[in-house]
Each structure stands twice: as C-alpha cells, then as structure tokens.
Amino acid sequence: MTRSSLPVAAVTAAAAALLLAACGGGSTSSTKASSSDSPTGSASATVTAASPTQAAGPTAPKFDLPSDIKVNFDGFDSSDPTKKAALKDATYAATAVVEFTARVYTKEPAFFKRFWTGEHGAEFADSLIAQGKDGSVVTGTFNYYKPVVKTLSTGNLAVQYCEDQRKAYSKDAKTGKVDVTTPSLEDFNLWTLTMTKSSTGEWQAYDHTWQNGAKQCQIA
User: Fold this and answer.
1) CA 7 to each of CA 97, 108, 109, 174, 207: distance values in angstroms, whole numbers, following the listed order
2) Residues 183, 25 contacting (CB under 8 angstroms)
3) What is the CATH code for 8-52+68-217?
C-alpha cells in the first residue's frame, strides 16, 4: 500500500472502476484513465496551453512520458491569479495520472505524490498500481478542455474539465500490442478535482470524481 491503509477490497473496487473507464467503444479490454464531480463557475481562456512536460519555471515538473504519448490542454488559463494557479496545477495533476498509467509502477511516481494528496490521493494511487499489475498501460493522445473553476466555502477550489480519449488506447506493457478501439461517447470523460493549497503554495487534488461517457464533453 502507499500513503493509505485502505482495505484490499476498497483498492480492488477502485481499480475495477478505472478499468471500466473505457478505451474507446467496441472493446471489452480497455484501460484508459478517467474521472468527475460538478462545480460551476468559469475559467476564462481560449488559448491552448503548452504541454506540462515543457512548462517554464524552475519548479515546473518534467514528466517522464513515453514518446508515444501526447497530452494537450486547451483553455487552462484565467485572468484571476488564484484560478490561474489552480488550473496550471490541475494540468499537472492530470498529466501525473497519465504518467502513472503509461508504465507499470509498484509505488507512486514523485509527481503524482506531489499533486495528489490525502487519503483519497493515496487510494487513487493504490488503484492505479493495482490496475498496472495486469500489464496494461496507456498510449496515444489525451486532450483536456472546457475547464471550470468553483470556489468552495472552505476556501478550497473545485476544478472540472473534459477529457477526450478517442486517440488514446490500452497497450500491453510486455508485447507493445495496442488495443485500437472505435471512437465512441465512452471516450469522453468529465473530471472534477477538489483542490487545496499545500504548504509550498501549490494546488493539490485531495479528492476527485469522474463521469465516463459524458455527453457534455462530446465534440466532433
């Protein structure tokens, strides 16, 4: 187990839920990462953000993504400084999930632990480790868009965004065989990260939910 001491049954259930977050329509052996909640509010931006792997700044994470994976963010910006910072760190949290599922890990990668915190973050990590034990990893392109930010009564923030996995697939880590699936509604996911500011000033996800097959995220 990682940071939590969750019972095995809970970890197994969480891993099973992730495995059901489909990798395209028409396949029963898909393994894409997915998640959501439902805040309201708005982050104003229409510019495509640079990949977090190339983000500027001395403390920006340098994710170890395989060459067959691309992660794109659109609109993750705001004129509000607090929302802008939370949106930036939300892109890091999302990329940390992709990094985690791109290879088989036996413990949390450093950036996942940096941008996911608390018992729920630990539970999520355990589920991703369990998911990787069958040798399935992800490949392809992950697109994130339509970010929305809501300020909570606690002073924390909820960041909601869409994910398009139509060009992302499950891959056998040992053989390299890719399970190419037919694009469908199941490729669109709605995530919500509930985020809190850490002692170092970064926004960390301490809880999350997701909706697979989200019609509000479907694009042509």
Assistant:
1) 22, 18, 21, 29, 18
2) yes
3) 3.10.450.50
Q: Which residues pair with residue 162 across a beta bridge?
A: 145, 190
Instruction: Determine contact, residues 23/166, Cβ cutoff 8 Å.
Output: no
**pTM here?**
0.79
* Residue 85: how many other CB atoms lie within 10 Å: 17
**pLDDT over 70 at 11, yes or no:** no
- Looking at residue 134, its pLDDT comes to 86
pLDDT at 80 over 70: yes
Residue ranges of domains in the chain: 8-52+68-217
**CA 126 vs CA 13, 175, 197: distances in Å:** 11, 24, 23
State both tokens at 57.
């700044």
Q: Is the pLDDT of residue 8 over 70?
A: no
Residue 86 to residue 70: CA distance in whole angstroms: 22
Per-residue DSSP letter, 50? P
